[in-house]
Amino acid sequence: MCYSAQIQADYRRFVRRFGARIDLREFVRLYWEREQGRAITIPKAVDAMFSDPQTDEERRIHEMIVRFNALRTAKLQKELFQQRARLTDAERALQTKTTKAATESKRIASEKIAAALRRLADLRRPELIDRDARIFPGNYAPVIVMEGGERVVKPMRYQCRPSGKPASYDTKYPGLYNARRDNLEGFWKALFGRSHAVMIANAFYENVKNTRIEGRELRPGERDENVVLEFKPRPEGDMFVACLWSHWQEKNEPDLMSFAAITDEPPPEVAAVGHDRFVIALREKNLDAWLNPSPDDLAALYDILDDRERPYYEHRLAA
């Protein structure tokens, strides 16, 4: 399964290239819910969509981002103060006597200080880097849907909770960020042919076994290790990833928009390094047909999935 992706989150590009309207109302709702304390993870690259606000809604979003980052900064600075004090205490204790407790406390404090400093640096860094656009299951990303004959960009969680299912599905079925093609008319039948979306990405990341990459058998007594590979199409470019999405609603619960990327058998170069599933990159000419599905013509939708882009996916160890 494709456990993370590097998304395209360029506000102006969505509008200019894809003729898509940004659903600012949904973005306002999402950022407001995050500010109210709901556990919502939004990549820095998505925040950057609103770094130069032009409308009242954009300005409201920008202000919420500024307040949220200020709160995160204060929490991290408090964490730094506490862990530096802990480190000082541990080092002082170790000068008198080496103990397991003091050694462990020094290690933990050092690791937490380093982590807090990294997070602070990320918050303060004005320029974007590749990992700022990387999403993981549970993170939010902009996806394109069709609404009233118009392409619309909405923020959705990358882990689908189908409408009508209980919220417990999030933990019971944590793999619902991917929808297997061979199960579209099974588990996903309520969405396939009815509720389609497209995520724009330019890289995907997979967990694979080290021995598969090296093309060898496991040695006696050896433990295989997972490594993370980055896959990028060659030539480089946007991938229009076929997705399903759902608008989940329940009384006394916040609405949830969420999506899953459809996966299929991998191309040979991906299979060769040990991964058995991969996303489906649609041809741009098929986007509107995919976004306007008919449950009465599933064969046409399978044809679109078959008529996919087939670049060579180059891989490297992820940074």
Brief characterization of the structure:
The chain has 319 residues and is of the alpha+beta class. It has helices at 11-18, 24-35, 44-47, 56-96, 100-124, 169-172, 210-214, 268-271, 287-291, 298-306; strands at 4-7, 21-22, 134-135, 140-147, 150-158, 178-180, 196-209, 226-234, 239-248, 256-264, 278-279, 281-282, 312-317. Strands 1, 2, 3, 4, 5, 6, 7, 8, 9, 10, 11, 12 and 13 form a 13-stranded mixed β-sheet that branches.
- Gyration radius, rounded: 22 Å
What is the helix content?
25-40%
- The first-to-last residue Cα distance is 19 Å
Order of helices and strands: EHEHHHHEEEHEEHEEEHEEHHE
Beta strands, count: 13
The total of helices stands at 10
Strand content: 25-35%
- Looking at the structure, what is the overall shape? globular
The chain-level mean pLDDT equals 92
Unreliable spans are: none
* Structural class by secondary-structure content: alpha+beta
Give the oligomeric state: single chain
Written description of the protein model:
This protein is 37% helix and 25% strand. It is an alpha+beta fold. Strands 1, 2, 3, 4, 5, 6, 7, 8, 9, 10, 11, 12 and 13 form a 13-stranded mixed β-sheet that branches. Strand 4 and strand 5 (150-158) form a beta hairpin. The radius of gyration is 22 Å and the shape is globular.
